[in-house]
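REQUEST FORM: STRUCTURE PREDICTION
Request ID: SP-0412
Submitted by: Lab K.M.
Chain count: 1
Length (residues): 264
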Amino acid sequence: MKQLRAMMGGVGVLLGFCTVPVLGQPQVFPAEPAPPPLGPLNDDEFRLSLEIAEAANVDRLIPLLGSPDYKQREAATTSLIDIGAPAFAKLRTAYEQTDDLEMRLRVEQVVRTAYLNRYVFDRNGFLGISLAPYEPRDTKGPRRPEIEVGVKVTKVITNTAAAKAGLRAEDVIIAMNGVPVSGSGREITERFSDTIRQNPPGTKVRLTVVREMNTLTLDAIIGRCSEDNIHNVRFAGLYDQVSERFETWWFKYFRVAAKSDDEP
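STATUS: Completed
RESULT:
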């Protein structure tokens, strides 16, 4: 088990996490909202049910985590993460019954990622832009007298909700779902960022955008923030809390029951 824990530091690289900028970067938010209190540690995740077909799919995927074929291991990892917490009971059984290090590493990565998705990333939306406040007195950007306030897009991150929706650098977002952007100064971006965060991944939002002298309507599907960038977003405190909680949860419900060659 010591060897297993020592190798876990490199799993993020092995499993191909990618680093991208985040909503609001490089802006520093002075007052991050306090994370909500977490309830007592329990095994509720193991009580979640799977449909018959989905349970059969989990049974098929788990052995592939230890496949000699890298592509099969990657595909199985991704699929099990997508299934999420309902697969935890079967993953725990597999972890307890195997001495294969690759299998254990993969199970831990699947469970950790799905756990964080469940309690952090699936509850907080991500658009994929860097932004700054825009007000009519600004010397740069569209000179439209009817624009009272907005958020100026300074960068669009490749392959994010913003990019897929067609947002571009220098666009000014003036409304979301028909509600005008509001505030002044830094408050403008804080409010907009919080509004995005409060829409979970998969939520469709309609953005009213000023581009040069044209007003456009763009539809975006809110995405999921990258774990590599979590400390640049406003729910970093929740992530830290859940990550610490996971370590205790993992030890209690997985490691104590696992077989190991280096523990009696």
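NOTES: The beta strands are 125-126, 129-134, 150-156, 172-176, 179-180, 204-211, 214-221, 223-224.
Reviewed by: T.R.
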